[in-house]
Amino acid sequence: MRHTRLGASGLRIPRLALGTMTYGDPSSQVPAWGAFGWDDAAAYYRQAVELGITFWDTANVYSEGASEELTGRAIREFSTREQIVLATKLHFRMHDGPGGQGLSRKAVMEQIDASLRRLGTDYVDLYQIHRFDPTTPIEETMEALHDVVKAGKARYIGASAMHAWQFATMQHAADLGGWTRFVSMQDQYSLIYREEEREMMGLLAHQGVGAIPYSPLAKGRVARPWATQTTRGGNDPVADATFIDADRGVVDAVERIAGERGVPMAQVALAWVLRNPVVSAPIVGATKPHHLPDAVAALDLELTPEEVTALEEHYTPREPKGF
């Protein structure tokens, strides 16, 4: 496994992160297409450790907390706390109380403690805001996150899925207040969703912030031929609102290059994401035994300039989604 630093921070991470949204409570509505319980998920946590994918990303809202519980259990059973770079998030609704959602001081303090209880640890390495909260003063959020770091409950903080101006404003507030700055941005980025290249990627490069993109395979759309249907593909309203028919040209190019190379489509698509110098570690989910080995193999796949051109030339700009 190759390693890098998370942006300009001192945190050393593997070049791939394990996304755990699919592991939790099968009866939960988050994610909408279902989740693996412990009996099924355990094999993927173990495989991740064996492959050196020791950067694990979860969130309080995944399976309403069950994903954090399984992730904590996996650390205890298959590794040690010191070997895992552990990341979680807050923002979305956990309950109806005033601290149950958003980024108020009350929510930040309540949700970090709840996450730590479920994870079975006294700190996370990366505490991320899952979305921007327009109802809470930015200064309130940044100072609260700073206090979480100073209390030893998080080593670093990160953000996810917002407009570049929102991220820049939050970083500026941290600078003015003398508070902890974000070291990472978890944004959507793939061959068929490149809107982050407009402003966010340049901002991250300028500020030394590492991108840890989610959905680097576009929710599987670039990892299979265009006509192939999956359970998730038919039950993911976010994907339905993000991807368009014009994406077929990109997917067909991935399929052609993968065939010429004799590798799975996922390796080609992920190798393209890994080329971006701002990307520290794409977040990869796994629901089949070959998913993580394929992701690791992508680290050694170098695309030619001609292949990159073929992969990029059919991209169709679209309205940014997911904020």
Question: How do you describe this structure in short?
Answer:
With 323 residues, the chain is α/β, with parallel strands linked by helices. The protein is 38% helix and 12% strand.
Tell me about this structure.
This protein is an alpha/beta fold. It has a single domain, classed as NADP-dependent oxidoreductase domain (TIM Barrel). The chain has 11 helices and 10 strands. Helix 3 packs parallel to helix 4, helix 8 packs across helix 9 and helix 9 crosses helix 10.
Features:
323 residues; 8-stranded parallel sheet; TIM Barrel; 12% strand; globular; 38% helix; alpha/beta; 11 helices
Low-confidence stretches: none
Strand order within the widest beta sheet: 9-8-7-6-5-4-3-10
In round numbers, the mean pLDDT is: 95
Strand content: 5-15%
**Tell me, what's the shape?**
globular
Count of helical regions: 11
SSE string: EEEHEHEHEHEHEHEHHHEHH
Number of strands: 10
**Helix proportion of residues, in percent?**
25-40%
Calculate Rg over CA atoms. Answer: 19 Å
Number of domains: 1
What is the CATH architecture term? Alpha-Beta Barrel
Distance between the termini: 32 Å
CATH topology title: TIM Barrel
Structural class: alpha/beta
Question: What would CATH call the homologous superfamily?
Answer: NADP-dependent oxidoreductase domain
CATH class category: Alpha Beta
For the largest beta-sheet, the strand count, sense and barrel status come to:
8 strands, parallel
Helices and strands, with pairings:
Layout: E1 3-5, E2 12-14, E3 17-19, H1 38-51, E4 55-57, H2 66-78, E5 85-90, H3 105-119, E6 124-129, H4 138-150, E7 154-160, H5 164-177, E8 182-186, H6 200-207, E9 210-211, H7 237-242, H8 248-261, H9 265-275, E10 283-284, H10 291-298, H11 305-312
Parallel strand pairs: 3-4, 3-10, 4-5, 5-6, 6-7, 7-8, 8-9
Antiparallel strand pairs: 1-2
Helix pairs in contact: 1-2, 3-4, 4-5, 8-9, 8-11, 9-10
